[in-house]
Design a protein that fits this description.
Helices cover about 35% and strands about 15% of the residues. With about 425 residues, the chain is of the alpha/beta class. It has two domains: about 10-55 and about 330-430, Aspartate Aminotransferase, domain 1 (Alpha-Beta Complex); about 65-325, Type I PLP-dependent aspartate aminotransferase-like (Major domain) (Aspartate Aminotransferase, domain 2, 3-Layer(aba) Sandwich), CATH 3.40.640. α3 (about 65-80) runs antiparallel to α10, α4 packs parallel to α10 and α11 (about 330-345) packs parallel to α13. The relative contact order is 0.16. Bound molecules: pyridoxal-5'-phosphate. Pyridoxal-5'-phosphate binds near residues 115, 117, 120, 215 and 248.
């Protein structure tokens, strides 16, 4: 607990209004002031405890303030905090080595930066350097960042603030089988979403885009899991046009979907993987990784002042060590299935549930309107009631109507019973 008396939510909101750029929004009508985190729990300034099923948006994969990560950080903070990459330090190279051990296929070289947005910016640059091309494809409903280029690659209006987005980016329909863009049904369709990629390359680009960005499972887009064949079919089209495949694993990376990287669920290896979030164990990190061959196109000096700094790098090393030692990716597959099974029992029982989907511990419940409330208001109402009952969930989707479950990977079965029980109590009273 902090030693000084907490300001409290109202004063924080007032200071925020007075001193911060208004775009920085927060969840809830009555938001708590979070002052402490431990394991699966967050605590507010009143001492109220919340079971966290959102992990700071897929960041706290090992829970809050994991003692081994915290110890590694504290030790490093007292020894050496920052030098930047113009000086040689050890943690950054050890982290790059460990990354090479977990990255799929021939991906073995990494650049560290400070956020997912920066990682995607870097990946776009790398793809341009390697291919000599500068157009990109991305999926509708995607989120790739809040920087100028990241936002322009993003296909969600909620996150596209820029009135003058960067050009040379074409968005194609995402493989969202529930609510298929083409009104088709999976199993009976001709994969029009793939045909549309080729169509877009031929009709809306020079015919030579550098790469296509994808989130293996769209997070902010409402936990959209593509059909099993999607990425292998996509790869064929991209290969035909000599385009790179860039997998944005910012949300899905490091065990969240039951594999170290979500693309491994479909045995498709991208050319570049970008990420951040969970790897830092709570410290700010971003990275992009690629093959030896592609990496060789980026020899002109590049840097990110804080990228791979000693504190973040030791936190990430501790994170990777625990993730592997405790086989958390494999565990996620099983425990995620349990959560999914419980949630699926709600389908058909509550008329406002439209769809339940996900993989591992990345699950969404898409809601539809009731007679009294539209789907967005309903989602907010449920989130607020859950928070009041001591449970934190997220919300995603183009309509902000997907209740989102992304708990720390250390979640226990008993946590799952608790949250499902709490949710059902609220659902019964809608
Ligand atoms: C898939 C994806 N890509 C990129 C980003 C941007 O990452 P950051 O906020 O660290 O810049 C996010 C953030 O939520 C994300 O979910």
């Amino acid at each position: 607990m902090s030693e000084t008396k907490p300001l409290g939510p109202q004063e924080i909101i007032e200071k925020k209004k007075k001193y911060m750029i208004p775009c920085v929004y927060h969840f809830y009508k009555n938001p708590p002031q979070i002052v402490r985190g431990q394991g699966m729990y967050l605590y507010d300034s009143q001492g109220k405890k919340y079971l966290d099923f959102y992990s700071g948006v897929s960041v706290n994969a090992l829970g809050h303030c994991h003692p081994e990560i915290t110890d590694a950080i504290c030790k490093q903070v007292k020894t050496l905090q920052h030098t930047t990459t113009i000086y040689l330090t050890e943690p950054i190279v050890n982290l790059a080595e460990q990354m090479a051990h977990v990255l799929p296929g021939e991906i073995c070289k990494t650049f560290f930066c400070c956020s997912g947005s920066e990682a995607n910016e870097g990946a776009a640059l790398l793809a341009t350097l390697y291919t000599g091309r500068n157009e990109f494809l991305a999926l509708q409903n995607s989120l790739h960042g809040r920087t100028k280029l990241g936002m322009s690659l993003t296909g969600l209006s909620f996150w596209r603030t820029d009135p003058n987005p960067v050009g040379s980016i074409t968005h194609v329909p995402a493989p969202t089988c529930y609510n298929c863009h083409f009104g088709q049904t999976y199993g009976q369709c001709q994969f029009q979403c793939i045909q549309e990629v080729e169509n877009a390359i031929q009709t809306s680009t020079s015919g030579k885009p550098a790469a296509m960005f994808v989130e293996p499972i769209q997070g902010n887009g409402g936990i959209q899991v593509p059909p099993a064949e999607y990425y292998s079919k996509l790869r064929q089209v991209l290969d035909k046009y000599k385009m790179l495949l860039i997998a944005d694993e910012v949300q899905t990376g490091f065990g969240r979907t039951g594999k170290m990287f979500a693309m491994e669920n479909w045995n498709v290896i991208p050319d570049i993987i970008t990420g951040g979030k969970a790897l830092g164990g709570g410290t700010p990190i971003g990275y992009f990784s690629t093959t030896e061959k592609i990496a060789q196109s980026y020899t002109h000096p590049g840097a990110s002042t804080f990228g791979g700094n000693p504190v973040t790098a030791v936190a990430a090393l501790a994170f990777l060590k625990i993730l592997k030692r405790d086989c958390l990716a494999e565990r996620t597959d099983k425990i995620g299935q349990q959560l999914m099974n419980y949630l699926k029992s709600f389908l058909g029982k509550y008329p406002f549930i439209a769809d339940i989907r996900g993989k591992g511990l990345m699950i969404g419940i898409e809601l539809k309107a009731t007679e009294k409330m539209d789907a967005t208001v309903l989602t907010d109402t449920i989130l607020e009631k859950m928070k009041d009952s001591g449970f934190l969930l997220g919300k995603t989707g183009p309509g902000r109507n997907v209740l989102t479950f992304m708990p720390p990977l250390i979640v226990a079965e008993s946590d799952i019973y608790e949250i499902v029980d709490a949710l059902e109590k609220i659902f019964r009273n809608i």
